Amino acid sequence: MQVETPEVPTARTQFYERQAVAWLQAEAEFNSRTWPFLIVSDLSQWARTWLPAGLVDASPAELEAAYVRGEIPYIPFAPSVELAEVVIAQAVEDGIVLLPTPGRLTSTYVHRDPTTEMETARGYGLKVADSAVLEIQSAAGVICEGELGSSEGSPLHGAAAIERIVHQVINTFAHVRPLHYAWDKDHQPNRRPRQQ
User: What is the pTM of this model?
Assistant: First the structure.
């Protein structure tokens, strides 16, 4: 008599099973609510109040350089965090922008030129704070390289550039789609500590 041994799933199979469950959970969480990203207060007044006098005529590139040098009060430089992300975070903190759920709005993907691999556009997403698997991705467009803080190809300056940055990023969230984290936040590898 032959005894069948149960097939032990491989690590790869377990990974894809976890991903399928995470996707179903993320999709259910996404469909359970609405996702309005709103500017709820006077954005132009807000942008003028915290921008230092020396940057009132600064272009977006000059604002980015001032941010990197730590010259914008209340917005300390953080490596790997671009100016648009900290401007949005400040707008959320100050009650100018209302997110549909607590989280961190950040750059989540880029488009690249297939030949040079240079970045050509950037898209944004919301890392949902109260979910282990859900991330919201903007689906209403991307911001092309060189267009952040610009209007019809011409850079705006000072508070107008800050105001434009907020509008550009929030406008990309007119339509959204769900994503699930590629590796769930709470996953701990199934390894035993080495015996000594």
Answer: 0.81
